[in-house]
Amino acid sequence: MSIRGGIVGFSPVLAAVLFLLTVDHGEAIWLTIPPTGGTKCVSEEIQSNVVVLADYYVVDEHSPENTPAISSKVTSPYGNNLHHQDNVTHGQFAFTTQETGNYLACFWVDSTHHPQANPLTLGIDWKIGIAAKDWDSVAKKEKIEGVELQLRRLDGLVQSIRENINYIKDREAEMREVSERTNSRVAWFSIMSLGVCLCVAGSQILYLKRYFHKKKLI
Question: Distance (Å, rounded) from C-alpha 125 to C-alpha 55?
Protein backbone atom coordinates (compact mmCIF):
# COMPACT_ATOMS: atom_id res chain seq x y z
CA MET A 1 0.00 0.00 0.00
CA SER A 2 1.28 3.46 -0.83
CA ILE A 3 -0.06 6.93 -0.04
CA ARG A 4 0.73 9.74 -2.40
CA GLY A 5 -0.43 13.28 -2.93
CA GLY A 6 -2.00 13.88 0.50
CA ILE A 7 0.91 14.33 2.86
CA VAL A 8 2.86 17.11 1.21
CA GLY A 9 4.15 19.43 3.89
CA PHE A 10 3.66 16.86 6.68
CA SER A 11 6.55 15.66 8.76
CA PRO A 12 7.64 12.03 8.28
CA VAL A 13 6.31 11.19 11.74
CA LEU A 14 2.81 12.49 11.00
CA ALA A 15 2.87 10.75 7.63
CA ALA A 16 3.75 7.50 9.33
CA VAL A 17 0.94 7.99 11.83
CA LEU A 18 -1.56 8.59 9.04
CA PHE A 19 -0.32 5.48 7.30
CA LEU A 20 -0.69 3.48 10.50
CA LEU A 21 -4.30 4.62 10.82
CA THR A 22 -5.05 3.25 7.35
CA VAL A 23 -3.49 -0.17 8.01
CA ASP A 24 -5.87 -3.01 8.83
CA HIS A 25 -4.19 -5.02 11.55
CA GLY A 26 -6.87 -7.73 11.62
CA GLU A 27 -8.04 -10.24 9.10
CA ALA A 28 -11.73 -10.83 8.40
CA ILE A 29 -12.55 -14.28 7.00
CA TRP A 30 -15.85 -15.63 5.72
CA LEU A 31 -16.47 -19.37 5.51
CA THR A 32 -19.40 -21.32 4.09
CA ILE A 33 -20.13 -24.38 6.22
CA PRO A 34 -22.02 -27.29 4.59
CA PRO A 35 -25.34 -28.12 6.30
CA THR A 36 -24.58 -31.80 6.95
CA GLY A 37 -21.35 -33.63 7.65
CA GLY A 38 -19.01 -30.92 6.43
CA THR A 39 -16.16 -29.17 8.19
CA LYS A 40 -14.44 -25.95 7.19
CA CYS A 41 -11.01 -25.06 8.57
CA VAL A 42 -8.72 -22.07 8.41
CA SER A 43 -5.02 -22.20 9.24
CA GLU A 44 -2.33 -19.64 9.91
CA GLU A 45 1.43 -20.08 10.24
CA ILE A 46 2.43 -18.27 13.43
CA GLN A 47 5.67 -17.93 15.36
CA SER A 48 6.01 -18.83 19.02
CA ASN A 49 5.21 -16.31 21.79
CA VAL A 50 2.61 -14.49 19.68
CA VAL A 51 -0.80 -13.44 21.00
CA VAL A 52 -3.77 -14.68 18.94
CA LEU A 53 -7.31 -13.37 19.37
CA ALA A 54 -10.35 -14.29 17.29
CA ASP A 55 -14.10 -13.75 17.35
CA TYR A 56 -16.43 -15.90 15.27
CA TYR A 57 -20.17 -15.75 14.66
CA VAL A 58 -22.75 -17.56 12.56
CA VAL A 59 -24.82 -15.74 9.95
CA ASP A 60 -27.81 -17.62 8.54
CA GLU A 61 -28.80 -15.71 5.43
CA HIS A 62 -31.88 -17.88 4.85
CA SER A 63 -33.30 -17.71 8.38
CA PRO A 64 -31.76 -14.81 10.37
CA GLU A 65 -34.27 -15.14 13.22
CA ASN A 66 -33.33 -18.77 13.86
CA THR A 67 -29.54 -18.89 13.82
CA PRO A 68 -28.30 -22.49 14.17
CA ALA A 69 -25.44 -23.50 16.44
CA ILE A 70 -22.05 -24.86 15.41
CA SER A 71 -19.05 -26.54 17.00
CA SER A 72 -15.51 -25.18 16.91
CA LYS A 73 -12.05 -26.49 17.64
CA VAL A 74 -8.58 -24.91 17.53
CA THR A 75 -5.41 -27.01 17.58
CA SER A 76 -1.70 -26.24 17.70
CA PRO A 77 0.93 -27.53 15.22
CA TYR A 78 1.59 -30.47 17.56
CA GLY A 79 -2.11 -31.32 17.89
CA ASN A 80 -2.74 -29.76 21.31
CA ASN A 81 -6.34 -28.64 21.87
CA LEU A 82 -6.42 -24.87 22.45
CA HIS A 83 -10.17 -24.23 22.15
CA HIS A 84 -13.26 -26.38 21.82
CA GLN A 85 -16.92 -25.37 22.03
CA ASP A 86 -20.13 -27.10 21.02
CA ASN A 87 -23.58 -25.75 20.17
CA VAL A 88 -22.69 -22.04 19.97
CA THR A 89 -23.73 -19.28 17.58
CA HIS A 90 -20.75 -17.09 18.43
CA GLY A 91 -17.58 -17.40 20.43
CA GLN A 92 -14.05 -16.20 21.04
CA PHE A 93 -10.68 -17.81 21.55
CA ALA A 94 -7.44 -16.27 22.72
CA PHE A 95 -4.06 -17.81 23.42
CA THR A 96 -0.32 -17.18 23.27
CA THR A 97 1.45 -19.52 20.89
CA GLN A 98 3.99 -21.93 22.39
CA GLU A 99 5.05 -23.54 19.12
CA THR A 100 5.97 -22.29 15.67
CA GLY A 101 3.87 -23.69 12.85
CA ASN A 102 0.35 -23.89 11.42
CA TYR A 103 -2.50 -23.31 13.87
CA LEU A 104 -5.78 -24.81 12.70
CA ALA A 105 -9.32 -23.62 13.50
CA CYS A 106 -12.18 -25.88 12.35
CA PHE A 107 -15.96 -25.33 12.40
CA TRP A 108 -18.84 -27.70 11.66
CA VAL A 109 -22.57 -28.17 12.12
CA ASP A 110 -23.79 -31.04 14.29
CA SER A 111 -26.54 -32.29 11.99
CA THR A 112 -27.84 -34.79 14.56
CA HIS A 113 -28.95 -31.98 16.86
CA HIS A 114 -29.40 -29.19 14.34
CA PRO A 115 -30.51 -30.54 10.94
CA GLN A 116 -29.96 -27.92 8.28
CA ALA A 117 -31.07 -27.66 4.66
CA ASN A 118 -28.95 -24.65 3.72
CA PRO A 119 -25.26 -23.91 4.19
CA LEU A 120 -24.22 -21.47 6.91
CA THR A 121 -21.98 -18.43 6.69
CA LEU A 122 -19.36 -18.01 9.41
CA GLY A 123 -17.51 -14.76 10.02
CA ILE A 124 -14.10 -14.81 11.74
CA ASP A 125 -12.26 -11.73 12.98
CA TRP A 126 -8.71 -13.09 13.31
CA LYS A 127 -6.09 -10.91 15.02
CA ILE A 128 -2.45 -11.82 15.53
CA GLY A 129 0.42 -10.17 17.38
CA ILE A 130 0.29 -6.38 17.42
CA ALA A 131 -3.27 -6.45 16.04
CA ALA A 132 -4.50 -8.33 19.11
CA LYS A 133 -3.13 -5.78 21.57
CA ASP A 134 -5.68 -3.71 23.48
CA TRP A 135 -4.44 -0.20 22.80
CA ASP A 136 -7.30 1.41 24.71
CA SER A 137 -6.11 -0.29 27.89
CA VAL A 138 -2.54 0.76 27.15
CA ALA A 139 -3.63 4.36 26.67
CA LYS A 140 -5.57 4.40 29.95
CA LYS A 141 -2.82 2.66 31.91
CA GLU A 142 0.03 4.85 30.65
CA LYS A 143 -2.12 7.98 30.23
CA ILE A 144 -1.16 8.60 26.62
CA GLU A 145 -3.33 9.68 23.73
CA GLY A 146 -3.33 11.27 20.31
CA VAL A 147 -0.07 11.30 18.37
CA GLU A 148 1.86 9.69 21.24
CA LEU A 149 -0.50 6.70 21.23
CA GLN A 150 -0.24 6.36 17.47
CA LEU A 151 3.55 6.54 17.72
CA ARG A 152 3.44 3.74 20.30
CA ARG A 153 1.31 1.67 17.94
CA LEU A 154 3.71 2.47 15.10
CA ASP A 155 6.66 1.35 17.22
CA GLY A 156 4.89 -1.92 17.99
CA LEU A 157 4.10 -2.42 14.32
CA VAL A 158 7.74 -1.83 13.35
CA GLN A 159 8.91 -4.34 15.97
CA SER A 160 6.39 -6.86 14.66
CA ILE A 161 7.62 -6.36 11.10
CA ARG A 162 11.24 -6.74 12.26
CA GLU A 163 10.39 -9.99 14.06
CA ASN A 164 8.61 -11.31 10.96
CA ILE A 165 11.61 -10.43 8.79
CA ASN A 166 13.96 -12.21 11.20
CA TYR A 167 11.64 -15.21 11.20
CA ILE A 168 11.61 -15.29 7.40
CA LYS A 169 15.40 -15.04 7.34
CA ASP A 170 15.71 -17.92 9.80
CA ARG A 171 13.30 -20.04 7.76
CA GLU A 172 15.20 -19.17 4.59
CA ALA A 173 18.48 -20.19 6.23
CA GLU A 174 16.96 -23.48 7.38
CA MET A 175 15.56 -24.21 3.93
CA ARG A 176 18.88 -23.30 2.30
CA GLU A 177 20.71 -25.62 4.68
CA VAL A 178 18.29 -28.45 3.93
CA SER A 179 18.64 -27.80 0.21
CA GLU A 180 22.43 -27.82 0.42
CA ARG A 181 22.40 -31.09 2.39
CA THR A 182 20.01 -32.62 -0.13
CA ASN A 183 22.15 -31.48 -3.05
CA SER A 184 25.26 -32.90 -1.36
CA ARG A 185 23.57 -36.26 -0.81
CA VAL A 186 22.31 -36.32 -4.39
CA ALA A 187 25.82 -35.56 -5.66
CA TRP A 188 27.35 -38.37 -3.56
CA PHE A 189 24.61 -40.74 -4.65
CA SER A 190 25.29 -39.86 -8.29
CA ILE A 191 29.03 -40.48 -7.82
CA MET A 192 28.33 -43.81 -6.11
CA SER A 193 25.88 -44.78 -8.87
CA LEU A 194 28.47 -43.92 -11.50
CA GLY A 195 31.10 -45.96 -9.63
CA VAL A 196 28.76 -48.96 -9.42
CA CYS A 197 27.97 -48.69 -13.12
CA LEU A 198 31.69 -48.56 -13.98
CA CYS A 199 32.41 -51.60 -11.77
CA VAL A 200 29.57 -53.56 -13.37
CA ALA A 201 30.70 -52.57 -16.85
CA GLY A 202 34.30 -53.54 -16.07
CA SER A 203 33.29 -56.91 -14.60
CA GLN A 204 31.16 -57.62 -17.68
CA ILE A 205 34.07 -56.82 -19.98
CA LEU A 206 36.40 -59.12 -18.01
CA TYR A 207 33.79 -61.88 -17.98
CA LEU A 208 33.23 -61.64 -21.75
CA LYS A 209 36.97 -61.50 -22.42
CA ARG A 210 37.56 -64.67 -20.38
CA TYR A 211 34.57 -66.35 -22.00
CA PHE A 212 35.83 -65.64 -25.51
CA HIS A 213 39.33 -66.82 -24.59
CA LYS A 214 37.91 -69.99 -23.13
CA LYS A 215 35.88 -70.66 -26.26
CA LYS A 216 38.92 -69.69 -28.35
CA LEU A 217 36.93 -67.12 -30.22
CA ILE A 218 39.65 -64.48 -29.85
Answer: 5
